[in-house]
Amino acid sequence: MPIIKKTYKDQVVGHVYQLLLTGELAPGDQLKESLLAAEMGISRAPIREAMKELIMNGLVDYRPQVGNFIPVLSPKQIIDSYTTRGVLEGYAVMSTFEQFADEEIGKLENLTAQMESYAKKKNHKMVVEVGGEFHDLLISKNDNVQLLEYTDRLSLKLHIQFCRHWSKLYSPVEIGQRHRAIVESLRLKDPTRIEMVVREHYVETGTKIAEL
Prior knowledge:
CATH class of the largest domain: Mainly Alpha
Largest sheet: 3 strands, antiparallel
Distance between the termini: 43 Å
Strand content: under 5%
Helix content: over 70%
Strand order of the largest sheet: 1-3-2
Shape: globular
Oligomer: single chain
Number of strands: 3
CATH superfamily of the largest domain: GntR ligand-binding domain-like
CATH topology of the largest domain: Four Helix Bundle (Hemerythrin (Met), subunit A)
């Protein structure tokens, strides 16, 4: 396996993402470059680079003359984000479903079981991490670079929303059932069903979060 060297900018992005996942940063909080630089022991140059990427990914809002803030998403923004991810992922899986080998479908089933297990233990972070691995595998066969870029950007935003709220939306058993429905649609090799199940998977969650 190749060694991936993370730049300071990448480390800052990862650090802020983890703070959002754990709830140490919440919607409306200000993100001060000077405090981040001091906390991480680095200069402000990579902090500024990281802010640009976080703003592009929708994880940070820049307010001129004021600073960087964690955005407070409106119900419409939440639904739009989930719906868009569902459309992209539904297409990505539907157009490549024939490429999934039995062992890969088995891995998806295993990841589903892991998610359900972590949900029973109320381990929010691992539910999201394993869920991310599940959905990454689903779109991994697609070679549309722009599609993958947009889904990756949306993933970070949606992971944070889901980590914050999933226990109010679904029971551990429901977490398992929802992901098994996707695996079953792949096993049946029905492209129309696959696309519909994936889209509904996202639309349902986005609608539920927007109603909280």
